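task queued by scheduler; priority normal; single chain, no ligands, no partner chains; default sampling; output format set to structure tokens
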Amino acid sequence: MGRKLFVGNLAYSMGETELRQLFEQKGSVESVTVMRDLDTGRSRGFAFVEMSAEEAAQKAITELNGYAVEGRNLTVNEARPKQERRGGGGSRFHGNNHGGGRHREPRW
């Protein structure tokens, strides 16, 4: 098991400081990254926490998975490496915008 953990179902108001304080109760924390929307800066409702030791990571998973914070039950498990998207639909460039939504230009 790795030391990098995925933390899901976060309250949108929960930031890095609060998350670090919660996980430090289970062991030493190396880093905390709450994932945020690039345009608004608002939390996307999930984060990554890197624990200093395997034992601390396992303790955090065991004791914090399902733990209620601000009325939401956290999901805590081992972070999996990001997989590359394959096939159609994953491209940032589309021929037509049939979704009726706001079209956004790619960022360079």
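post-processing summary
- Strands lie at 4-8, 29-36, 43-51, 68-69, 72-73, 75-78.
- The chain has two helices and six strands.
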